[in-house]
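Slide 14.
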Amino acid sequence: MNLTGLSALVTGGTQGVGAAIAFSLAKAGANLVLHGLREDALAIETIRKCQAFGVRVTPLYCNLLQPLDTVLREMGEHAAIIEPELSLLVNNVGVFIDKPFLQMDESTFDQTFDLNVKVGYFLTQHFSKRWIQNGVSGRVLFTASINGLLAEADHTAYDASKAAVSSMVRSLCVALAPNNIRVNAIAPGLVRTPLTNQTLDHDTEALRWMQLHTPNGKVPDASVCGPIAAFLLSDDAEHIHGQTIYIDGGMSAWQQPELPAGLRGRIDVC
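Slide 15: predicted structure.
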């Protein structure tokens, strides 16, 4: 993919899936505005790796749970000052702070939807107005999740928010494609990030369970997400609009895994 000369804003771009996307965009030649919550070791390392490709990389630290007008001013306006020709928007920032459904509270629910849905919706609106006014062919990528398709009992707010992302991508496609603005999403399955490693590095049973539920048997690191993201933002994907691409080793295609040998014959399957 060739993104030379283009500029991108990547929210939540300093670690995990966001950092993997940023790395692939920089490798393809894009200049970057990398959003993160704070400057830390992960942010510094991501910036260093992206700069190694000879592109401009500017950090932009902002708490996206501030009032929306503050977020749009600190993110949208500042990013456009840093990279005036910015035409790529990656709405990657998200949060998983779920509680069991019967213990869910309004604050946790609202924070989940604010970060996973609302911020990306209005950043897309902000930049789309600018692109339409200036005749720019903008490109938008959201990070959805396999959880928007396959549910988990204790992830009700998160699952609902990620399903909303995929639905929003379709709606924004229909609204913006006539203005030559492309909107798509990637939906990772379980990948290794600083967050998921807190469990996977210490719980071999959990890791084996997730491998069992993935047809290719892998739980890869987040780098598998980057090349697909770069492709969807490139000219090579010019006729792909409104799609959510699952990067999940086949998990979303599988009704359920084969029973382990120790359970066969003990469970009736209708």
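Speaker note: Residues 62 and 74 are 7 Å apart (CA to CA).
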